[in-house]
């Protein structure tokens, strides 16, 4: 296993002190980087492990925070914060830009080679960064076929990949169709993968607290979705070894 280093990073966003998780590969050279967004519950060890896995692949990775260091395991509390957030593109962009600034400021990050990958609310934030015209190499989302303000998808400057469960009641076929219509009309290089039989948050391991209806883990598709994310990064943000480092 490749040696990596990790540390927590604090930064302001959305009126809160966010606490992210930064994972870096071995070495001292600049690396392509990935901004990683969590589900609506917030940053947990699931996303921290994913950031670590990306660092093992050679990326600088920042798993960003949504709720000021809190994990919202109560569905009602989570929805009370996330639903207004998802309805406010400017707030989502503010959270995304604050985390992106932290990642760009990291000396190991190549600021010209950054991708955004997100799950649920974190995926919606990744898409809003694209709609805001941020220079990203790729956007990857799971459970986040969210649409934006009319016409703003034309500002997306990179390929977009979205994964969703076929039985996801939160992102149903009508929502998926609206998302793909938006991407197509904007001329985005987009892809959609539908995982047969999977519910919302199918990628997330089972939790030991109540969840909103329609959520369920699907181990096989979770592995496939992770491979699809890694393949997207390999295509759009390849890791190249610096032999002089």
Automatic annotation (TrEMBL):
Domain Dienelactone hydrolase: from-to ranges: 20-235
Q: Which GO terms describe its molecular function?
A: hydrolase activity
Its keywords, alphabetically, are: Hydrolase
User: Which SUPFAM superfamilies does the record match to this protein?
Assistant: alpha/beta-Hydrolases
Q: Its family?
A: Belongs to the AB hydrolase superfamily.
Among PANTHER family, the record links this protein to:
DIENELACTONE HYDROLASE DOMAIN-CONTAINING PROTEIN, DIENELACTONE HYDROLASE DOMAIN-CONTAINING PROTEIN-RELATED
This protein is called Dienelactone hydrolase family protein
Question: Which species does this protein come from?
Answer: Streptomyces ziwulingensis
């Amino acid at each position: 296993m490749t040696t990596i280093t990790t540390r927590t990073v604090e930064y302001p966003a959305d009126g809160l002190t966010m606490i992210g998780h930064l994972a870096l590969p071995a070495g001292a050279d600049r690396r392509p980087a990935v901004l990683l967004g969590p589900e609506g519950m917030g940053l947990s060890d699931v996303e921290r492990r994913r950031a670590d896995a990306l660092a093992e692949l050679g990326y600088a990775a920042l798993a960003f925070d949504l709720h000021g260091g809190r994990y919202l395991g109560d569905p009602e509390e989570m929805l009370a914060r996330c639903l207004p957030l998802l309805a406010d593109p400017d707030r989502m962009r503010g959270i995304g830009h604050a985390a992106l600034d932290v990642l760009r400021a990291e000396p190991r990050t190549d600021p010209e080679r950054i991708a955004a990958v997100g799950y649920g609310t974190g995926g919606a934030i990744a898409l809003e960064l694209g709609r805001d015209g941020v220079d990203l190499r790729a956007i990857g989302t799971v459970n986040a076929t969210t649409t934006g303000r009319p016409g703003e998808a034309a500002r997306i400057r990179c390929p977009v990949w979205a994964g969703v469960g076929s039985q996801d009641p939160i992102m149903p076929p009508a929502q998926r169709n609206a998302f793909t219509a938006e991407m197509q009309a904007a001329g985005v290089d987009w892809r959609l993968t539908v995982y047969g039989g999977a519910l919302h948050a199918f990628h997330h391991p089972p939790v030991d607290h109540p969840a909103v209806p329609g959520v369920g883990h699907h181990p096989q598709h979770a592995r496939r979705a992770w491979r699809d994310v890694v393949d997207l990064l390999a295509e759009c943000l390849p890791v190249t070894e610096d032999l002089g480092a």
